[in-house]
């Protein structure tokens, strides 16, 4: 069993940690398989109300392990080279973006290539002031993957997305905040505390409502207003039937602060 991805759950917060610090958390095949399966497990775990994705060492994740990639190129193993996109990268991106609970990327270091893509699929990106993003794909003459063609323009607009993808460079934390790539930037020494505070707040919130909001926003991005209105109605009915909604309304009437259980 590989330990290149670790998983821990505490008080409703699942922390998924990429654990190949010597390789800057590059994604070889065993790591991609384990990361995909771990993210899917967190999405389906009813005990998990918020997910945190982070890395160990000086990088968040630098994307595909190029040492492995070069070996596959030299072996001309076309199946292994390109099946990884639909088999690994795409399911990871979809699970991060569409699971029915909030997801935080704790960016402890550089996030490059698919590492940046994964971060952009999350709801929040809390970034250490020493970290940054590099959209490295065209630097090695490849197109983009892991959902970045969908997420990046929605974060920063089409023109800026094209610029950063055409001309890869490391975007430092402060600029990432200005562009909208980062949700917040904190001193590196404070990253763990800042992420824990946000995760704790989200884990104590109305989980079904959070999941419904993120799915509604995702749906509306590729559907008409009329279709989005219908989808919204289904999510209002779903959330309206939750214990959290009924308890919150009762608390409002009683002028009390509601307590949410995520159900």
TrEMBL record:
It comes from the Bacteria. Gene3D superfamilies: 2-enoyl-CoA Hydratase, Chain A, domain 1, Lyase 2-enoyl-coa Hydratase, Chain A, domain 2. Transmembrane segments: none annotated. One of its GO terms (molecular function) is catalytic activity. CDD domains: crotonase-like. SUPFAM superfamilies: ClpP/crotonase. Belongs to the enoyl-CoA hydratase/isomerase family. This is Enoyl-CoA hydratase. It comes from Kribbella soli.
């Amino acid at each position: 069993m590989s330990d290149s991805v670790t998983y821990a759950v505490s008080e409703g917060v699942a922390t998924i940690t990429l654990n190949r610090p010597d390789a800057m958390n590059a994604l070889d095949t065993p790591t991609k398989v384990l990361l995909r399966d771990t993210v899917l497990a967190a999405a389906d775990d009813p005990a998990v109300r918020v997910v945190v994705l982070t890395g160990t060492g000086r990088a968040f994740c630098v994307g595909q392990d190029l040492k492995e990639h070069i070996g596959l190129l030299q072996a001309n193993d076309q199946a292994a080279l390109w099946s990884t996109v639909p088999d690994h990268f795409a399911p990871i991106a979809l699970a991060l973006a569409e699971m029915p609970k909030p997801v935080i990327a704790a960016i402890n270091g550089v996030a490059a290539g698919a590492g940046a893509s994964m971060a952009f699929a999350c709801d929040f990106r809390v970034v250490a002031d020493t970290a940054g993003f590099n959209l490295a794909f065209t630097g090695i003459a490849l197109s983009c993957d892991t959902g970045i063609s969908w997420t990046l323009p929605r974060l920063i607009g089409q023109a800026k997305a094209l610029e950063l993808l055409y001309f890869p460079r490391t975007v430092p934390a402060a600029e990432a905040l200005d562009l909208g790539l980062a949700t917040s930037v904190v001193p590196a020494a404070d990253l763990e505390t800042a992420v824990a505070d946000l995760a704790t707040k989200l884990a104590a919130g109305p989980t079904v409502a959070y999941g419904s909001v993120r799915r509604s926003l995702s749906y509306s991005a590729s559907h008409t207003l009329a279709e989005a209105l219908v989808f919204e109605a289904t999510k209002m009915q779903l959330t309206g039937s939750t214990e959290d909604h009924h308890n919150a309304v009762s608390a409002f009437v009683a002028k009390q602060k509601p307590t949410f259980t995520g159900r």
